[in-house]
Amino acid sequence: MKDRTILTLFAVIVLLLIFFLTSFDEQVQNVFGFNKTEFKFKTGTAKAAPKCRLSAVCPKDHFPFKIWSGAANVVGPKICFNGKNVMSHILNNVGPGLNIVVVNDETGVVERFDYLNMISGNSADILTYLEKIKPGMIVLVASFDDAATKMTDEIRQMFVDMGSTLIRSVKHRDNWVFAGRAGKKIKSIFEQRAENDEKTNVFDGWPEMVEVGGCFPMTKSV
Predict the structure, then answer these.
(1) Which end of the chain is flanked by fewer CB atoms within 10 Å, N or C?
(2) Per-residue pLDDT tens for 55-66?
């Protein structure tokens, strides 16, 4: 009985001590005219959130982007630039072949986006489309279904001139994503390819999806 009384008294003393310390802390804050929580909130700077599902915020002189290829011939690709989804299956503006976004490299304004039908399209028309892209423009590309049926050596060379190192090996139903700069012949680090191989294909007749993203430098940063 005596031990229980001592424990109860000890508990009361601890509670009173906690109350006293809490009250004292609040009084000190009031004396100096601020509350700790409010002080941190007012002096802290809001952190910018990464765009296009990147893991970090890009430098001011770079554009954030991310590209996902399609999944087989069922789910279309997605292209996000500077925080905005420009093309996607949900937006219903993608198609079989090469889905392409052309961006002004200085302002970051999307000048055009289309899909080049590499299955039933006209190779000459596709080449003409690519030739009209102004030198220096940022070009983002995502494959869907098949990107090689109407692919010619001339079309492949256009992408080589944009910085692609894998386009020459892209074949029937390979998945391919790429970001480069038109006409500059600067090797791009933003490129991925998944080979169509029946031994490793994730989908029936198609390989796994591929994606690439990062911070694309503006012209002045190149």
Answers:
(1) N
(2) 999 999 999 999
